[in-house]
Amino acid sequence: ALQAVIFDLDGVITDTAEYHYVAWKQLGEELDIPFDREFNEQLKGISRGESLERILHLGGKENTYSAEEKEEFAQRKNEHYVSLLDSLTPEHTYPGIRELLLELQASGIPAVIASASKNAPQILKALELDSLFRYVVHPDSVPHGKPAPDLFLRGAEEVGADVKACIGIEDAQAGIEAIKSAGMIAVGIGEEAVLKGSGADVVLKDTKQLTLSFLERTLQE
Ligand code: B16
Ligand code: MG
């Protein structure tokens, strides 16, 4: 039986993935490194620092700036991102998510957040979902970010769940890889072609069909 559901946050619970894109894109333009949505796929699920490195690499500028300058760039992006979060309300929760969390709570199955974002607690609060999660893994509490399995393994461990009885839900390629290397079933949210390529067991176009019975069936197959 299903022992825990481990959720990514940005792009699964709410559309903050779009805010990340907007904020990075602006920084990219300021640094004269334009990029599109296709490149942005590579930034999803990746930490703030690593995302900046990938953007600088894209522009051939990985050796142009000092550590202090990079720190300032990451901070500038985060300030822009956090200002976009101000408009976040419970209505911004993706369809079906609150209902699924209530179903899980009623069944005593823990819901866990395994997000690469340091802003996760603030986002959950703004969505008024914080009380529905048993545990939120802090990204700095594990040695490796996604695609390493650490965040998902820590999530399962914290609620005493066997990885084989856990389902991870992700919108990012790096996140699907992380779930699979943790030994869990991976449900992808987004484009089938993109996420199946990373090893997703099943892909849904959006969160509407995410119900407890769907997850239980997926685990059994
Ligand atoms: P922050 P997730 C990830 O969250 C985002 O997908 C990624 O784009 C972002 O860079 C990362 O969090 C770090 O976020 O700058 O807020 O610490 O998808 O793992 O929930
Ligand atoms: Mg995500």
Automatic annotation (TrEMBL):
GO terms for cellular component: cytoplasm. Its EC number is 5.4.2.6. SUPFAM superfamilies: HAD-like. Substrate binds at residues 8-10, 24, 43-48, 51, 77, 115-119, 146. Belongs to the HAD-like hydrolase superfamily. CbbY/CbbZ/Gph/YieH family. It catalyses: beta-D-glucose 1-phosphate = beta-D-glucose 6-phosphate. Keywords: Carbohydrate metabolism, Cytoplasm, Isomerase, Magnesium, Metal-binding, Phosphoprotein. Its main location: cytoplasm. The record marks 115, 146 as: Important for catalytic activity and assists the phosphoryl transfer reaction to Asp8 by balancing charge and orienting the reacting groups. Pfam families: Hydrolase (PF00702). This is Beta-phosphoglucomutase. It is an enzyme of class 5 (isomerase). GO terms for biological process: carbohydrate metabolic process. The keyword Plastid does not apply. It is found in: Cytoplasm. Mg(2+) binds at residues 8, 10, 170-171. Binds 2 magnesium ions per subunit. The keyword Membrane does not apply. It comes from Paenibacillus xylanivorans. InterPro entries: B-phosphoglucomutase_hydrolase (IPR010976), Beta-PGM (IPR010972), Beta-PGM-like (IPR051600), HAD-like_sf (IPR036412), HAD-SF_hydro_IA (IPR006439), HAD_sf (IPR023214), PGP-like_dom2 (IPR023198). Its cofactor is Mg(2+). GO terms for molecular function: beta-phosphoglucomutase activity; magnesium ion binding. NCBIfam families: bPGM, HAD-SF-IA-v3, PGMB-YQAB-SF. The active site is at residues 8, 10.
